[in-house]
Design a protein that fits this description.
Distance between the termini: 28 Å
Number of helices: 5
Order of helices and strands: EHEHEHEHHE
CATH topology: Rossmann fold
Oligomer: single chain
Strand content: 15-25%
CATH class: Alpha Beta
Largest sheet: 5 strands, parallel
CATH architecture: 3-Layer(aba) Sandwich
CATH superfamily: HUPs
């Protein structure tokens, strides 16, 4: 069925709950599970006298990814943190790693977020691969 599954991770309690469902899917299909987090950094440092916090963001993302990886039994070699826009990073990763199924969570949006769309909607709209969207309730 599936050989390679990618879970686009955000670091929230809801993502941990979704991870439990994904773990069952991986066990049933015997697929390889990959984790990816797209780290979007502030574009502009408005205060040049304050050092850029990019390294601090990356360290925290690595710490959280490691915890998620342990919870889902995903080896470090299948855990990825990429800096940039997830709408670009995730499809590129899918092509490069021959992903069969993208799994991502979805928050209910209201107001401008609903009009502009979310990352989940954007990835779903451009998908040439199978997608499983798990609502974060």
């Amino acid at each position: 069925m599936y050989k390679n599954i990618l879970f686009a991770v955000e670091f929230s309690e809801a993502a941990n709950t979704a991870g439990k469902k994904i773990k069952k899917l991986v066990e049933a299909t015997k697929a390889n599970l990959f984790l990816i987090h797209a780290l979007e950094l502030p574009i502009l440092n408005s205060f040049p006298e304050i050092p850029n916090k990019e390294e601090l963001y990356m360290q925290e993302a690595k710490r959280r990814m490691s915890g998620m990886g342990k919870n889902l039994n995903v080896p470090e070699s299948h855990q990825f943190i990429e800096v940039g826009n997830p709408r670009i990073i995730i499809p590129e990763f899918i092509k490069k790693h021959h992903i069969d199924l993208l799994v991502m969570g979805h928050h209910e949006k209201q107001g401008l977020d609903r009009i502009l769309g979310s990352t989940a909607y954007a990835l779903l709209a451009q998908a040439t691969y199978q997608v499983l969207v798990i609502p974060y309730l």
